[in-house]
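Troubleshooting: if your tokenizer reports a length mismatch, compare against these two reference records.
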Amino acid sequence: MKSRMTLFGCGPKLALLCLPYIILSLIIMIKYPEFLHLQFLDLILFKIIGVLWLGLGLIFWGYSAVYFLKYFKPGTLLIKGPFALCRNPIYSSIIVFIIPALGIIFHSGLTLSIALVLFVGFKISIHGETSVLRKIFGEEYDKYEKSVNEIIPFPRYLLRGIVSN
């Protein structure tokens, strides 16, 4: 197990896990464009939702990537900016926003399945990174982990206000 923080985190492991499925899916989409075509997404409302979701995802991805590249230093726990919304905002932008938005825009169940495969791959590969962060930051990371969602960018403190009222 790694014992230090790296710029790429669990990305390489996630890529190794998911890339074969993604490549196979792209080949199937090109060869058989009607495979897992979701007809009900042909409505203009879904196209609008898909484009808005994609825009939101691209903005969140850009913000997260720039913030990460600007502030990442081994030995520093990022907890502000997009990291105040979820612990893995770059993965979140791709898995929660960009890939599902493309699935909606192109009416593709196969594209939506890529998001699901990426999510499962993320859950499998993130444990090593989490262990390293726990080892380096100890109680500080435990507190952060309890206060911020792993991949859904929604502040938990908002939920506390709703639930307690």
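Reference record two:
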Amino acid sequence: MWHEAVDADFIVRVFAVVIVAEKHTFQMLTKRPGRMHSMLASGQFWGLVRATLPDYGPPSPAAEAAVDARFLPNLWLGVSVESQKWAFRLDKLAATTAGAVRFASCEPLLGELDLRPWLGSGLDWVIAGGESGPKSRPAHPDWVRSLRDQCQMSGVPYFFKLLCTIEVLGGECAVPIAAYSRRLLARAA
């Protein structure tokens, strides 16, 4: 959604829908936190969102208050951080306060990752997982355990999806990997 080719009017309309659909929780994940941050920090953007709200029905007082506060309690904003090389993306996410939850999606996890500078100070949730599919790149169990431990020490929720390291299963990445992943993580606990 935050790609430069996506028209700003489309993003305004998406935010209007998020605001009026107060009972739903929306997650927006990007590899482009710079555009996300600059748009959400813009008074002009929020003015356009306010002007668009009536297109989706009469806005509630809570919806109007959300626009005024530039804070959407039903919005989670996240960035993809596959390895330390991409951790800089978290700086813009941490500075973006429009969403109730800011999260890192560390999937596919492709290398060691130190999230401690952002945990507890701008990062509310971490999701991690390996890559799946016939040409998946391996995720090392130590990387997964390290993220889990960092999150535990910081009191930040951690959700681990899947360790899908093809070498571990002799070239197979199928249903048994979920049980294997649980055993692997439990060993370090």
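Descriptive notes for reference record two:
- Helices lie at 8-20, 33-40, 43-52, 61-69, 89-94, 141-154, 176-188.
- The chain has a mean pLDDT of 87.
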